[in-house]
């Protein structure tokens, strides 16, 4: 596939991370094979083929000092800003590092496949000027935990200036989804033709998710540190008891709390309870 990336386009990947999580406090610092979950995730992000600047964005809260310290250990810059306004943190971090193109990759996706990130980037670059925003989650088809959102800096700045609702500031991109008349939006579907977004959970928000992710890393990483989404799926077919570790939470996501506020999200895209 021809890559039409414009010379000089600066890609900045912003990973939001903080210690305060109501369901699993400190999840980004949980251990995975002798390193933190955040370390292992950044290790995977560094495997993408596209040249990009990684930035960890966290809050000014004292509890997040450890995030800044871990960023230094990893060798990735850290931006600190408002605790709850993640849109502002995203914008300020991207602006500070002179982004032309900004990626949002959640810190709760330590199993994210770098090949999928590259696939979404290729889609964006193969259609120069056609999109302000491209994701693989609106609607989602990949296993949950492979979330990639790409936006131009102009798109992010417009969103930063215009978004006013709490959920838009907290989750960064819903204002874009909800205003297709103001943004040119593209979506990348999983090329298998499958939709595992509600049945396979590779993200972390509950203790069972950590046990699942820890087990996957222990099974796959020693032999292949850049293991893929396909490798995980083959493991789950071979060892269904690993799939069962957190399957009760499959499909449970933050959408469930905002169905009355999001016109582009349907009840079928979330579950309100586990199981």
In short:
The protein is α/β, with parallel strands linked by helices and 275 residues long.
Taking the alpha carbons of the first and last residues, their distance comes to 41 Å
Q: Tell me the overall shape.
A: globular
Strand content: 5-15%
Structural class: alpha/beta
Task: Give the count of helical stretches.
Answer: 10
Q: Estimate percent helicity.
A: 25-40%
**Which sequence of strands runs across the widest sheet?**
5-4-1-6-8-7-9
Order of helices and strands: EEEHEHEHEHEEHHHEHHH
What is the strand tally?
A: 9
Poorly predicted residue ranges = none
Radius of gyration in whole Å, from Cα?
A: 18 Å
Outline the biggest β-sheet. 7 strands, mixed
* Global mean pLDDT: 95
Describe this structure as you would to a colleague:
The protein is an alpha/beta fold. The chain is 33% helix and 13% strand. A 7-stranded mixed β-sheet has the order 5-4-1-6-8-7-9, sandwiched between helices. Strands 2-3 form a two-stranded antiparallel sheet. α3 (86-96) packs antiparallel against α5 (153-162). It is globular, with a radius of gyration of 18 Å. The relative contact order is 0.14. The mean pLDDT is 95.
